[in-house]
Write a structure and sequence with these properties.
Elements (H helix, E strand, L loop, with lengths): L6 E11 L2 E8 L6 E5 L11 E4 L8 E2 L5 E2 L1
Antiparallel strand pairs: 1-2, 1-4, 2-3, 5-6
Length: 71
């Protein structure tokens, strides 16, 4: 979403893969970069850009410290 809406993040890397984009985001308060896969308008997002995050809980996947998918 637009900067100022949702949780603020900075795009570190954007890989546009046809109908899907993979973004690496720096989010305040998180030590590691967040990896986001999206298909809605992300082809217009580039490294260095500020964005806002509005997670959709039904589509979110969480992993533990060992990389295992959490329920």
């Amino acid at each position: 979403v637009a900067p100022g809406a949702g949780a603020p993040a900075d795009v570190v890397m954007a890989a546009h893969l046809g109908d899907t984009s993979v973004l690496r985001l720096r989010v305040a308060g998180l030590e590691d970069l967040m990896r986001v896969r999206t298909s809605e308008g992300a082809d217009e997002v580039f490294a260095g850009q500020a964005v806002g995050l509005l997670p959709q809980a039904a589509q979110a996947m969480r992993f533990d410290a060992a990389g295992r998918l959490m329920p």
